[in-house]
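Two proteins, back to back. First:
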Amino acid sequence: MPGVIWLSHLLVVLLPVALLGAVWLGATMLFWWQAPARSRIPRAQKRREEALRRMAALAERLRQQEPELDPKPILELPLEKLVQKLLADELSLESVLCSYLEEAMKVHQEVNCLTDFLDECEEQLQALKKLKKSERGLLYGVPISLKDVYDCMGHDSTCGLAQFLEKPAAKDGVVVKVLKAQGAIPFVKTNISQTLLSFDCSNPIYGQTLNPQNLKKTPGGSSGGEGALLAKGGSILGMGTDTGGSIRIPASFCGVCGIRVTGYRLRYLVVGVVTVTGPLAWDVESLALCLRALLSEHMHRLDPTVPFLPFREEVYSSNRPLRIGYYESDGFTQPSPSMARAVKLTCRLLRDAGHQVIPFSVPRTEYAFFHLFLGSLFADEGASLLEKLKGDIVDPSMKNTVTSLRLPDSLKRFLAWIWKYIEPRVSQGLETLCGVGDPCQSHLSCLPLFLQEYQQEFIAKWRSLDLDVLLSPALDPAFFVGYPAKTQESSFYLGLYNLLNFPAGIVPVTTVTPQDEKELAFYRGYYRDRFDKSFQEAVRGSVGLSVAVQCIALPWEEELCLRFMKEVETLVKNKMEPK
């Protein structure tokens, strides 16, 4: 132990010197790049203010057409009922759009979730009114919100990065085109975390988005603006993207539903750790309706890399008993008391409903996180990420990651060696960032082999138990703002299924109880290191906040995943309703 104590003292001396040197060097190198970034950000903030004024003006014009409009009954309608009323002309397109414009502005004032107003929604509304009834799509007249990254003609898609400001999209993206063809009316874009690699929701352009359930908490990320807007009723359907839980964490933190689909089932975005598009909504039926609309031949025509696999209604509507695997912990991050309780509660409800529930254990979680997940995200040792941040202001949610990436490899290796004796998880993270160990483990050309090997190992275990679906904890409850950067590995409850490329969805099942909060006082974690301590601090003070579970299926089985989610949602609802 004296040697470890000596090393820790040495680290106390060397680490600040190293970090100061790296910061000084980075500041010197980026000095000439930062002026353009800083000049674009105030202009972007001013453009947002102007856009929100135009949004208010449109709401006022629509309100004048129906001065007696009461938005409350409209805002209380679930998506399925809203579409029925719009298709039957029982509600006007103007009344619905007006109601959501007004409500979205109220929510934004409270939680700072909007980045842009899509002015073209007014023109689109007028075009929809001219359609024959037979020409109306599955989402006819539904106002929808879009995560900042979705391309809309004439609007920026920033990823929270200054270099993408003032570069408006030349055309709508494929998903936006399909949604519009189905009658949806995109009306706002929502906030994200910088670079989309944090599960907080903050960037230097648009600031921090807050969780409407508790304004000291984050809504999650990177699709946090969507989660916050939906949770407060400012949107009825939203589109996010998911790289490591970016749809599912906001859904879980904010108490709504969300699903990430198999890569290529909808438009596929990134190789390696699979980034996909997906919807967030108030309930599972709304997610199913959105996928019915998107899984169309039109999508395949616009993007031939997306196979034409229409929504399989017979799978979604089946009522056969399921064989369900479950786990309360991934063996890597100890679940919070509410996370474990949510899985136990759901298992009991499923078992009582006649389903088979079988224990499952995740294989080699630590290896999967450090070598495969982080290895995929930073296969180039962070070079592409640092390139995107050139000339930009680094958001606090990204500073730890960026500082580590900017350290010279030799210093990373030295620090990794020292941390091995103090905090092994810090050491493993640094080793991954500089490719220490097997050179193939973090090399882009070799990673697909290791990923495929792990995926097949996971599927073999699944098949050996003859499972239909899998139930796991989500990540709950919502973290305090700023804490996602301190305990990033906890998000691997969700990120694992990006690595595996499995469809996975979130269903709220309970809320944090006073007993959960009492048990949290005894939380120590599996490693008892700084990350475990930060996790405990991040989730405290959460009585009453939402707690969800995660429902998982094998690749290309979105309909089965949704069917499982619907079963969980129905059982929980029936339990809550008085007999």
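And the second protein:
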Amino acid sequence: MIMRKNLRMGSITIIMLMAVLVWSITLETCIARRGRHWRQNHRSSSDLSDSLLSKKPKSHSYHHSSHNNNHNHHHKSKPKPKPKLKTPPKSDHNKSPVVSPPPKVQPPSLPPPKGSKVFNVMDFGAKGDGKCDDTKSFEAAWAAACKVEASMMIIPPEYTFLVGPISFFGPYCQANIVFQLDGTIIAPTDSKSWGKGLMWWIDFTKLKGIKVQGKGVIDGRGSGWWQQDYPFIDGETKLIVPLNNSVPMPIRSEFDWKMPSIKPTALRFYGSVGVEVSGITIRSSPQCHLKFDNCVDVLVHDMVVSSPGDSPNTDGIHLQNTRDVLIHSSTLACGDDCISIQTGCSNVYIHNINCGPGHGISIGSLGKDSTKACVSNITVRDVAMHNTMTGVRIKTWQGGVGSVKGILFSNIQLNEVQLPIVIDQFYCDHTTCKNQTSAVAVEGVTYEKIKGTYTVKPVHFACSDDFPCVDVQLSGIELKPVQERYHMYDPFCWQTFGELNSPTLPPIDCLQIGKPARNRVQSDHDVC
């Protein structure tokens, strides 16, 4: 009995020991698995810590422990080592590494901010390379500037803009707009751009307070047009006879195609009030360089006109139906009149002008095709002329009506001018012209301090039989001949009446003193 109990107790003990043994093995396996799982979690947390540290400079520590009976596990995360920077490879033979410059990125063209008063053509898509047509960009910039009073349209320096015929139309524009020209504008040279022909290239119409200023250039590239006008006949050309009967060579053109017969003026202002042009250069216009038509209150100063002396019909500044004009401190070189004053002009004051080559400063021609012409109160003084065809001139067509009066030419310095002083009431730029009795009357013309040298004839007064020139005043005339390549002549007068207020050189004995015995009176319709 006792032995059975002992055997039973032994069996139970053995069973219990085996159970403890199995449990112990299972527990160690679980602990080992848990340890491996902790190490994996520790590495993941450390990586996450480094990621966060790279964004925010904050320190973090992570602690994990596991306990079983007398075993204690305690681990701390170690900071991840900083990555080493990669160094560029060493260049051979101590050569400096070649570094490519960053590519130039052209910023997109954006219109100026709302409320701006400055409008740059580059912001409206202009290229300024002299090849792409920038006409549309100029039109867009003007449309924006036109809406803002006292705005400024900018043509920036160091760019060349190819611009076709363009009109800056202003009836609905705000006042006092500035056209700031510091770059270069060139005209197209293909005949297609001009169609059958246009009277202007760049045109400002019906504006109040418009300034064109700056140091830029308007280049008409007109040689392609000039060759079509050869030979060019001025009314006084018939008075100039070369000694050897030589004929000038025709102008050569860089273009082979034919341009339209109607030639454009480079820069025109029409129907505008308060116009100012200053600082700019206009060169090689197909016809007139700068024209004012139906304008009031005009100021031109410190500008340059530049074209060859044999470029036909290229007047420097042309005034027509324009009053209250001041032109000064400018240099004008062209193939026709440096300044031309046409019908409808009054209150014009011109001084400190350098003229030549060209055809001097002229009033006219007036009365063409039996029209009425009225010009009054014109002053031209302090002018230097060199190598011009004429000096100071009044020219009218037979058959016209109206009058030229109140004219002063003072302190004119001449250097080798062919015909320094001219009044021609028989002006004709054709081979022959019809004789007519009516004429534009010329009265009240004063010449004082006209000095220098001439190469053909010092004075040429050719006045109408029915409407003689009256009240012509001469003083301080000193003109000396310079023999060049032309036949030379003495002073000439026909139906010219007035006064010699001082001795003249050479003597102008042909001037008739006083007034004509009889003079035809113009009708009320013909009087200005």
